[in-house]
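Same chain as my last thread, 130 residues:
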Amino acid sequence: MTSTQDRLREQVSTARSRLGDTVEELAAKADVKHRAQLKAEDMRHRAQAAAGELRHRAQAATADLRDRAHSASDDLRHRVQEHTPEQARNAAGTAARGARNHPLPAGLAAALMLAVAYLLLRRGSHRDRR
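reply #2:
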């Protein structure tokens, strides 16, 4: 009879252990707050990964656009140089050097030209009103 009692005690112990595991599993499933926290953490990690990917793609696109703009600018500069007469290029270079060497007179001349243009435009707009 001792062996039967020992077997029964062992079965009861096993049943209690399984019951304890089952209760723990049910408690974990019922812990909505903890599950929500885990889900929120998972979503946060996913959002950070997506933001990193988007940042990388934006940087690559920006670099590509910068390269394309630089290339287009170089192309346009070469085309303008090809189609601008040499005499005009020389005159522009001389004017630019003069403005660099004497910035005050060049600035005054530019201001004078802007003032004249403003007055001419203003005068033309007054004529249109009459």
